[in-house]
Amino acid sequence: MTSEELKSGYIFLLDKPLDWTSFQAVNKMKYKLKREFDLPKKFKIGHAGTLDPRATGLLIVCCGKFTKKIPEIQDAPKEYWTEIKIGVQTESYDTEKPEILQQDIAHITEEQVKEVLEKFVGEIEQKPPVYSAIKIDGERAYNLARAGEEVEMKSRKTTIHYLNDIKIDFPLISFTVGCSKGTYIRSLAHDIGQELGVGAYLTQLRRTKIGEYKIEDATDQFLNNDFRFLGE
């Protein structure tokens, strides 16, 4: 890999670690690439689809002229490995906020869970979480929510292509979900809990695929001090 190759266009597949924002990951990439390859100040770099801080997995970073590919990659279907906990909720729909509204789940059966999951396959309506990066009047929704302001999220259509590899070990349920652009898996977890009547929230999320790109081909080498082998 050379500076000319990076400027001409390069795609990195990163395995984003827990508690990193996508912005932080790209910034660290940019700093290390510019230092290692003496790139210009205005070197173009960006990610093709945000991952929440509490999620791990595939983050695609495009460099140079390949930043033009970002919209195309963002439009591709996604796949995630997902774990949810039923019988309790959180305000953020994930582990960012503490558990609230605990309910008894003794009456919930595996058959009920599978029947409910099946209802979510296909085109669905969902509201994004208030703790999301969506802008409301120019401000990120999560900033408004963290400031204690009332946030009204509008429903949007999205598509769940499949829910596979379902494993049930109450109160935890895990599955692989294939979905369209713009799907919020935190909202899916919350809505599954509402359909079951006992609440639920997202405990783990790992993005495994974006279009043709797979987590198996990703690296976390960019976190190491030795940067020489990144992307090779």
TrEMBL record:
Keyword Acetylation assigned: no
tRNA pseudouridylate synthase B C-terminal domain residues: 186-217
GO BP annotations, alphabetical order: mRNA pseudouridine synthesis; tRNA pseudouridine synthesis
Lineage: Bacteria, Pseudomonadati, Bacteroidota, Flavobacteriia, Flavobacteriales
Top enzyme class: isomerase
Protein name per the record: tRNA pseudouridine synthase B
Catalytic residues as annotated in Swiss-Prot or TrEMBL: 52 (nucleophile)
A GO MF label: tRNA pseudouridine(55) synthase activity
Organism of this sequence: Chryseobacterium jejuense
Its biological purpose: Responsible for synthesis of pseudouridine from uracil-55 in the psi GC loop of transfer RNAs.
Domain of life from the UniProt record: Bacteria
Annotated family: Belongs to the pseudouridine synthase TruB family. Type 1 subfamily.
